[in-house]
């Protein structure tokens, strides 16, 4: 299966300048986006383990990967998992965001999140768990830190309970919960 490479379409961009081209690769700043596939599973799992992240629930088709345009080597990835859908409003969890350490600080992670959000828009909410040191990154993308109380979805309580035990040991910092309110921020 070959990947179609396309340039940015200036007629269809959201405020951050990402192309709105679901299902096709998008070239951007020396890298491109593509949908994950079964061939990516081993790479995704090894990166998650290296980053001390939860490898459970990995389905490559939920992932978007950023690849170096010349080498076609993955330089980052992330996934959005559908958690509830009442037929009208969808709730997702943003999970497994990883960028190659050598490519961090160049906007790859930010554009991956934006591409993931676009690919699932419109949605009611997007939730995530992250470490305290990553709060600013996600706040710049519109997420806000949430108190762990009764409005946090039950499925996230389980993850937070387990993660709050493991994260301080594995990465030396506590987990936080963040949420992005649904909005039609993207063209379509």
Protein model, in words:
- With 188 residues, the chain is of the alpha+beta class.
- The chain has one domain (5-181): Gcn5-related N-acetyltransferase (GNAT) (Aminopeptidase).
- Helix content is 24%, strand content 30%.
- The chain is built from four helices and nine strands.
- Strands 1-2-3-4-5-6-7-9-8 form a nine-stranded mixed beta sheet, with helices on both faces.
- The chain is globular and about 50 Å long.
- The protein starts with a strand and ends in a 7-residue tail after the last strand.
- Mean pLDDT is 82; it is low at 1-24.
- One of its GO terms (molecular function) is acyltransferase activity, transferring groups other than amino-acyl groups.
- Residues 21-163 form the N-acetyltransferase domain.
- InterPro entries: Acyl_CoA_acyltransferase, GNAT_dom.
Explain briefly what this protein structure is.
Mean pLDDT is 82; it is low at 1-24. 24% of the residues lie in helices and 30% in strands. The protein contains 4 helices and 9 strands.
Report the strand count: 9
Number of domain modules: 1
CATH superfamily: Gcn5-related N-acetyltransferase (GNAT)
Strand content: 25-35%
Task: Please report the first level of CATH classification, the CATH class.
Answer: Alpha Beta
Counting DSSP H or I runs of 4 or more residues, the number of helices is 4
Radius of gyration: 16 Å
Topology order in helix (H) and strand (E) letters = EEEHEEEHEHEHE
Mean pLDDT: 82
**Which outline best applies?**
globular
How is the CATH topology named? Aminopeptidase
Outline the low-pLDDT stretches: 1-24
Strand line-up of the largest beta sheet:
1-2-3-4-5-6-7-9-8
Q: Strand pairing plus helix content: what structural class?
A: alpha+beta
